[in-house]
Write a structure and sequence with these properties.
By secondary structure, this protein is mainly alpha-helical. The chain has helices at residues 13-25, 37-47, 51-68. The chain is built from 3 helices and no strands.
C-alpha cells in the first residue's frame, strides 16, 4: 500500500491505475513536474475550487500514483 494512503482513503492498485490514466489523458502526469498553471486554472474554475487546492491535489495524486507503482 502506498505511503500516501490513509485509513480514511486507502489507495489500491486499481485506484492508482485510474488516477494515472486520467492524469495521462489530460497531459498532467509527471510526478516531478509542477502542475501546469492553465490546467490548474481550468480545473479550479470547472470544479469551483481554489487554484491552490487544485494544485496541491494534483501534486498529491501524482505522487501517490507514482509511489504506488513508479513504472507508470
Amino acid at each position: 500500500m502506498s505511503s500516501f494512503a490513509t485509513k480514511s482513503f486507502p489507495l489500491n492498485s486499481l485506484d492508482c491505475k485510474v488516477i494515472t490514466s486520467i492524469l495521462a489523458k489530460i497531459g498532467a502526469f509527471n510526478p516531478h513536474q509542477i502542475p501546469d498553471r492553465k490546467l490548474v486554472a481550468e480545473l479550479s474554475e470547472a470544479l469551483d475550487l481554489d487554484p491552490d487546492d487544485v494544485h496541491y491535489s494534483l501534486k498529491h495524486l501524482r505522487m501517490a500514483a507514482f509511489a504506488f507503482n513508479p513504472t507508470f
